[in-house]
């Protein structure tokens, strides 16, 4: 009798064990089936618009060269630009490049027009010519508005980024040239090639609200800090830069590069054409066209103090930085490690030819869609905690 009871208990325990095992297995399967999928890896790419050195096709052809930032800036692909053709049938100079995450498009401005290219399909959605031509454009932080300078003419066109339609026009009579949309979206900074004053436009009214300057000569490339309190400008005739107060409108400082001669330059007729802040704003990097150099300044003091210089393979006409501040991108196609000052890569197309351009922008993709973008200007990224 005792043996029968023991057998029954063993059988009962076995059933319980099997049932529990099955439940655990089923639960484990459910856990596996319902576990969240890992987030898609973010791909960081550098989009380089060409011809971005005048209309020289030898520096990258006609289109957009794309490079993998996390794979030693290796060539990824070439996106043909069906637009940007002059009436003579030759590709037009690229004047600017910018990105709107709101429309998922990259915009390329040429001498006469703007091309809108879908970043996913890589198809051109529209191309429109504008009165007076187009220079270096800038897009609002929300991606909806483009400020498009005419080509050294009297006005800026304010453009709908989705349609390309002109919303209004801002007349400054300053030789419209370089444009920076403020990070807070409230102001746009308008530099004319024929003026010593920097115009500031209110984005609610699309009218000039105030000016900064005068600077010592006509304004060329410029950049601003993230708090939108300081502007750093190249001016004609100066190997160096000047600083202005964006709040008071006053001229603050003139900084001259020491230890290097001023000489002839191949392009732009300006000793320093190209200036940018590292994203943390601790340094300012300055182009030197005659000496084929970048000069690095300590920007933690005011005025900034010269620290060192970096030799390049060609004349730099522009400078910007990666979003994380690790790399500097002069127009020469050299890729520079900001911390070590060493050239760590050189942009090359699929046939290993040099790619050079003064118009490039970083774009991040996740799941095949653009999720973040940098800027073409080398803007400071240190924001004020509060700003009215």
UniProtKB/TrEMBL annotation:
InterPro entries named among the record's database cross-references: Host-pathogen_enzymatic-act, Quino_amine_DH_bsu, WD40/YVTN_repeat-like_dom_sf
Gene3D superfamilies cross-referenced by the UniProt entry: YVTN repeat-like/Quinoprotein amine dehydrogenase (2.130.10.10)
Name under which the protein is recorded: DNA-binding beta-propeller fold protein YncE
